Amino acid sequence: MVNLKQITMDNFWEVISLNVKEKQHNWVASNVVSIAESKIDTDEMFPLAIYDDEILIGFLMYEFRDWDGPILFIDRIMIDEKYQGKGYGKTSMKVLMDKTKCVNNYTKVKLSVHEYAIDTIEFYKKLGFYFTGEKMDDELVMELKC
Asked: pLDDT of 39-72, one tens digit each?
């Protein structure tokens, strides 16, 4: 069963050792950079390790924003290359949304994606995300209404 856990000294080194596929290296930020970013902006970004029972399979980071109303913004999500294509990304997104909905009554989920990350874009489209026409840091913004 997929669950989300805090990053601690017990799992830190394993989390920063996760890897994506070679073709994804150009648009997936390293987990160590993401964790560092969350420590600088401690009030807003929440990094979590993704587990299937006790097996570490990925990493995600989210925050709540006020962007024409409250939204859940997914800063990062990555599944280790050994576990990609097994439905973990989709399940992790659902677990995150279920977990956070009671904390912040948002009506939208947003994220940004590089325009040349075709597989990633298709993944998000299958989940119901669509392009908003907005850009953020040279990335295209996608949205899912809840």
From this structure: 887 668 999 999 999 999 999 999 988 887 889 9
Name which residue leads in pLDDT, 30 or 49.
Answer: 49
Is residue 59 a contact partner of residue 75, using CB atoms and an 8 Å limit? no
Which residue's entry shows tokens 């964790």?
35
pTM confidence score: 0.91
Instruction: For residue 22, give the DSSP letter.
Output: G
Two tokens, residue 13 = 């080194």
CA 6 to chain centroid, in Å, comes to 14
Phi/psi at 68 (5° precision): 55, 45
- Hey, what are 28's tokens? 């997936």
Residues sharing a CB contact under 8 Å with residue 19, sequence separation 6 or more, in sequence order = 80, 81
Mean pLDDT of 109-125: 92
Q: What is the mean pLDDT of the chain?
A: 90
Cα 89 to Cα 87: distance, rounded to the nearest angstrom:
6
Compute how many other C-beta atoms are within 10 angstroms of the C-beta atom of residue 131: 14
The CATH code of the domain at 2-145 is: 3.40.630.30
Report the interhelical angle of 118-126 vs 88-101 (nearest 10°): 50
**Look-up: residue for tokens 């948002």?**
106
